[in-house]
Amino acid sequence: MSALHAVADALATSGTMAWQIGWSLILGFTLSAVVQALVRRETISRLLGDDRPATLVRATGLGAASSSCSYAAVALARSLFRKGASFTAAMVFEIASTNLVLELGIILALLLGWPFALAEFVGGPVIIVLVALAFRVVVRRKLVDAAREQAEKGIAGSMEGHASMDMSIDVDGGLFRRLFSRPGYTSVSHIFVMEWAAVLRDIAVGLLVAGAVASWVPDSFWESLFLTDQPTLSKLWGPLIGPVISVLSFVCSVGNVPLAAVLWNGGLSFGGVVAFLYADLIIVPILLIYRKYYGTRMMLALLGIFYISTVIAGYVVELLFGALGLVPDQGGARVGEAGISWNYTTWLNLAFGVLAIALVVRFFATGGREMLAMMNGTPNDEKS
């Protein structure tokens, strides 16, 4: 009975966190779908052909308006690289499309508080600058050429079919006319559902892991791991250990936010939690995809550059927010303790639930089932 009670407690915590963030996910994915419906992939590739600062700024903006699924972002970055984008611009696009998206900021604000959401958008550009500098100084042309040769082999990976699909609309007229046309409605519905399909696994796993960790791991373990009794060492240690926990958790994208909330309540430093969130692109499954896409040497280069960049960004955020007095009190994250009640969250979930239903119905009424079947497949133009 004690084991059953422990499982029930973990599931209840996971369910409550899912309820808290449900409406924000729908809102974020809807806005992302609207942007993707209006911007063509060919246009993105054309704008990212070099690694000049202006190009990297464009890559950041386009990435922030794109997918929040780490696997889809990795596949899309390779697709852009193969279509003419520079490797640095493709990596910047990838980072922005998982760490600077609106839905991530909303969920962070809901579960951890607005300082974490602000920190995510402050530290993200720091990582991008560091990655760009590292590629310019450390990564040689020979390694990039070898990565391009490997990428051109077209070896399929997770979300390859999803990354290859360009569902932007081709309708004359202004922005609102295009968006509210029948093709616009259809395109938004298709992108919305497929974005959900791409991240649903990560979100579910993240919530289950967070619920289990919150319910089963004693506070004493976190206090020992995060050196909570030594505040100075804790701040130095946090950004170093945060990404390591992320790599080993196998949870990426918005799915790692619930676990970040548990770690914050457990005593991980502010910078450590932010660094944990940034490390979603170097979890073990994605490292294996990098190896398949770009070769072992480039995979190791990406691991080293991304890890060091996330650690430095964690320190920058810790120092900056600490100096400004913006670091919140430890342990204030919402980890399911309030349960489900009839409040503003309920009304928001109901309202956005209706929107989600309308988009899902449109999706299946316009050939969406076939699109889902193609989602994890290999696009025709990339088959050997």
Layout of secondary structure:
Elements: H1 2-38, H2 41-47, H3 53-64, H4 70-82, H5 87-99, H6 102-111, H7 114-137, H8 141-151, H9 160-164, H10 175-179, H11 182-216, H12 219-225, H13 231-249, H14 257-266, H15 270-278, H16 284-294, H17 296-323, H18 344-365, H19 368-374
Helix pairs in contact: 1-6, 1-11, 1-18, 3-5, 4-5, 4-16, 5-7, 6-7, 7-15, 7-17, 11-14, 11-18, 13-15, 13-17, 14-15, 15-17, 16-17
Pfam families: ArsP_1 (PF03773)
Main location: membrane
Protein name: Permease
Strand content: under 5%
Number of domains: 1
- Structural class by helix and strand composition: mainly alpha
Name the overall outline.
globular
In percent, how helical is the residue content?
over 70%
Number of alpha- plus pi-helical segments:
19
Q: What's the total count of β strands?
A: 0
Largest pleated sheet = none
Report mean pLDDT, rounded to a whole number: 83
Whole-number radius of gyration?
A: 21 Å
Q: Topology as H/E string?
A: HHHHHHHHHHHHHHHHHHH
Low-confidence stretches: 380-384
Give the end-to-end Cα distance, rounded to a whole number of Å. 55 Å
Protein name: Permease
Membrane topology: Multi-pass membrane protein
Subcellular location: Cell membrane
Keywords: Cell membrane, Membrane, Transmembrane, Transmembrane helix
Question: What do these coordinates show?
Answer:
- The chain crosses the membrane at residues 20-39, 87-112, 118-139, 240-264, 270-290, 302-327, 347-365.
- It comes from Nocardioides mangrovi.
- It is found in: Cell membrane.
- It is a multi-pass membrane protein.
- This is Permease.
- The protein has one domain.
- Helix content is 74%, strand content 0%.
- The longest helix has 37 residues, at 2-38.
- The chain has helices at residues 2-38, 41-47, 53-64, 70-82, 87-99, 102-111, 114-137, 141-151, 160-164, 175-179, 182-216, 219-225, 231-249, 257-266, 270-278, 284-294, 296-323, 344-365, 368-374.
- Helix 1 packs antiparallel against helix 6 (102-111) and helix 15 (270-278) packs antiparallel against helix 17 (296-323).
- The chain contains 19 helices and no strands.
- The radius of gyration is 21 Å and the shape is globular.
- By secondary structure, it is an all-alpha fold.
